[in-house]
Specification:
TolA/TonB C-terminal domain; 133 residues; 5-stranded mixed sheet; alpha+beta; 38% helix
Length: 133
């Protein structure tokens, strides 16, 4: 019984030392702004965004078959480094269209971040995505 306790204690100590040797870095939380001096710009500007949407957005087959149309409102954050994160559906029209809208937003690429007082900041965005047959 004593050997078993010693083994458990040694394993626990080994795990603690391993954890201490490889600390998990926690990313600093960014303040997300909804009002900025300069809005974020997608790759290629608005024309680039339009081209991207035309090439990338796929109307889900089940939604097409069911005749589902409408506007999906997606919110997301353009971080200070231009990456797009935290995409969520604000207003949806059905599972497959909502998932497609999120897929497209999640794959935007790097934007030019918004600026507040001349400094790049995380900015909350809302994008309507229209599904029309």
């Amino acid at each position: 019984m004593k050997n078993n306790s010693v083994t458990k204690l040694l394993c626990l100590m080994l795990l603690i030392f391993a954890w201490m040797a490889y600390p998990i870095e926690l990313q600093a939380q960014e303040t997300v702004h909804d009002k900025v001096d300069e809005m974020p710009v997608p790759p290629g500007g608005m024309e680039g965004l339009t081209d991207y949407m035309i090439k990338t957005l796929k109307y889900p087959k089940d939604a097409r078959k069911a005749g589902i149309e409408g506007k999906v409102m997606v919110t997301f954050v353009v971080r200070a480094d231009g990456t797009v994160t935290n995409s969520e559906i604000l207003q949806g029209i059905g599972k497959s269209c909502d998932e497609e809208a999120l897929r497209v937003v999640d794959n935007f690429g790097t934007w030019t971040p918004g600026k507040l007082d001349g400094k790049a900041v995380a900015t909350q965005m809302v994008l309507p995505i229209q599904f029309k047959l």
